[in-house]
Amino acid sequence: MRRPFVAGNWKMNKTVDQASVLVQELLSGLQQFTSVERVLCPPFTSLMLLSAQLKDTGIGLGAQNMHWEGSGAFTGEIAPAMVREFCNYVILGHSERRTYFGETDETVNKKLKAALAVGLTPIVCIGETLTQYEAGETQQVVVRQVLQGFKEIESAAASQIVVAYEPVWAIGTGKAATGEGANMVHKEYIRPALAQLFGSAIAQNIRILYGGSVTGANASEFFGQSDIDGALVGGASLKPDFITIVESAAR
Ligand code: 13P
Known about the structure:
Blueprint (H helix, E strand, L loop, with lengths): L4 E5 L6 H16 L5 E5 L5 H7 L5 E5 L16 H5 L4 E4 L2 H7 L3 H13 L3 E6 L3 H5 L3 H12 L5 H4 L3 E4 L13 H20 L1 H6 L1 E5 L7 H5 L6 E4 L7 H10 L1
Parallel strand pairs: 1-2, 1-8, 2-3, 3-4, 4-5, 5-6, 6-7, 7-8
Helix pairs in contact: 5-7, 7-9
Bound molecules: 1,3-dihydroxyacetonephosphate.
């Protein structure tokens, strides 16, 4: 079966010193729940220190973005092999990257191929905006994001990918989707689109996380659902509440 997966996306928060303190606060709590794949995704500047701090703890480390090219004249960008020096995971195509930094299904697809090529586990974010949600376009949007974002990926590599369904209207708003609503999107829209690309056996193995205002208080509503395999947590991952979320995934 699919191992539960909980990742904390720290977004643009914490200096190196602050990141180190937060890891110290969370570490022993997180280490108890070994049945859950647990990952922290701090800003790039903290990856080197945290990779040392998390060594042999069972807690994984991820970046929040990367470029698809291997090296060269791309000022301000970080290459896949640079991420791989410190991390086993990378978040790709987060809605904030799509909204503020012009990422598209096409660039997400290039990054996904590059991440797999260096042995990173990609956490690929998809999800509809509020306008699309209100227009009843959720299915159309998430299916397109899967079919375009995951195109030309070998079936053998696909089961390594983690998908995060993050409805944009639920991110940072305190208005989470309902467990049933998110599960319906996972089960009826996203997994069938994955099956269309990779076949149903592989699609059944791919973890699909929910993200958007997940807290210790509402996490169990999501983890009780058949097709919600974990969470990508923003705000609550910066607090001890993150341990409560992981505990809830372990049940
Ligand atoms: P919040 O948990 O703060 O809503 O953020 C979700 C998110 O964007 C995780 O990637």
